[in-house]
Amino acid sequence: MSEHIPAPDRQHDPHPAQPRTVLLRGGEVHSPADPFATAMVVEGDRIAWVGEEGAADSFADGVDEVVQLDGALVTPAFTDAHVHTTATGLALTGLDLAAAGTLADALARVRAYADARPADRVLLGHGWDASAWPEGRAPSRPELDAATGGRPLYLTRVDVHSAVVTTALLDLVPGMRDRSGFHPDAPLTGDAHHAVRRAAYATLTPAQRAEAQAAALARAASLGIGSLHECAGPEISGEDDFTALLALAREANGPRVVGYWAEAVASAKDAERIRELGAIGAAGDLFVDGSLGSHTAHLHAPYADLPGHTGTAHLDTDAVAAHVAACTEAGLQAGFHAIGDAAIGSVVDGVRAAAERLGTARIRAARHRVEHAEMLTEATVAGFADLALTASVQPAFDAAWGGPDGMYAARLGAERAATLNPYAALLKAGVPLALGSDSPVTPLDPWGTVRAAVFHRTRAHGISARAAFTAHTRGGWRAIGRDDAGVLVPGAPADYAVWRTGELVVQAPDERVERWSTDPRSGTPGLPDLTPGRDLPVCLRTVVGGRTVFGRPNE
């Protein structure tokens, strides 16, 4: 049977009698096995063959399906290494203030949303960023009370490390005004923020939660994302939310979901509980500090726009060391959320202390990871390399907040801001990178993420398109201990995406070794031209484990 890019099967037998064999031909296949490949054979859930068009004829009569690519590009499916799936779905289906250009605009959107959702017990919203508004401040509680008609509202800042709420939501949490992080006239942070988040999310019905999760997974599949790393935890989402998501991902025809649960481990019993939840690690957003936007990232020197304030430390070196040691001994991956230079220093010192106790080889073999890792120094980059820590990073943060006039510069001053997110230095030191979005903090957008890593706002920190693409495909698999996936070679999982795109290019070398890319004549596979202003590739089909999970209509 021969056909063009098909729509996905809506139903599938999880245990087919025989593996289906598919031949894709007539396109460009991004594979190190053959840099000139134009065809690929998939047998069941594995890549069986990659090669050139002439050799594809020998397979054509022995396969169940032939897909004519018509010049389309086939790549490994992307892995987004840091996602909050339910929150992403709620932003997709609910109140998203990312496009609000002013405080007045934000309040008008809140009012319209409240009017349109009269049955919701608690109104949920996300994405405001007062640093980008001319008013320069967050919505006040009286303003939100008026906009909602006095109903409960939970509204997170774009970084999800602070929130504004209505009086009605505060009244649902006993002792709220005595919690750390409570501010009568400012956004809530710390324990106060976590308490209102728990109260707000507790009002979601199972149906609302499932709808949000399904919406997020469908969006990911439509963007060529084949795997998501869900970064959950008791301060982020409940156990029911986490286990329901993992169950949905197992049962649905969609992207894979790898779960992390951010809870400190002190014993083998703790580690076993993490595994029983379905998590592969006690990692993800285990908070060592907060965020720069909310002034809660832990710094050595005070914020430039908040003199005397150095942020919030949630875990110290000893706590980091204890967690890493316990996880390593239990054979469990550990990890942390760390953004400020003081927080990252605590992580490196803590992991090194665990290595002194258990041996560096055991620590390196565990592939522990650090989320965000923004404010690195030469010493902490070297520490990441020495301890084989994976840097799970989000280049869209730099695209959104970097540069001399961005939020980073406002918080830290231009000189310190220019040191953030040094991807070239990390790669040069041999630190493994895994790229992600932290959605809904920044949107699911894999090609945009690769572009942001290449065209970093601080030019010295940018990396080659090839390196960024690898970090967003194979890097996420390596971060979970899988070296056999995220690449189109025989034997690898059949997780791939098909793209409509322009001419493929190989990035030319420049004066910095870190960005050199091999001359096309040597056979390096090409990638789309990601120069800012050019259209990004459009996903035509996404396949996970040999099964189509997204097909663009009318293609």
From TrEMBL:
One of its GO terms (molecular function) is hydrolase activity, acting on carbon-nitrogen (but not peptide) bonds. Residues 1-15 have a biased composition (Basic and acidic residues). Residues 65-550 form the Amidohydrolase domain. Keywords: Hydrolase. Residues 1-20, 513-532 are annotated as: Disordered. InterPro entries: Amidohydro_3 (IPR013108), Metal-dep_hydrolase_composite (IPR011059), Metal_Hydrolase (IPR032466), YtcJ-like (IPR033932). This is Amidohydrolase. It comes from Streptomyces lydicus.
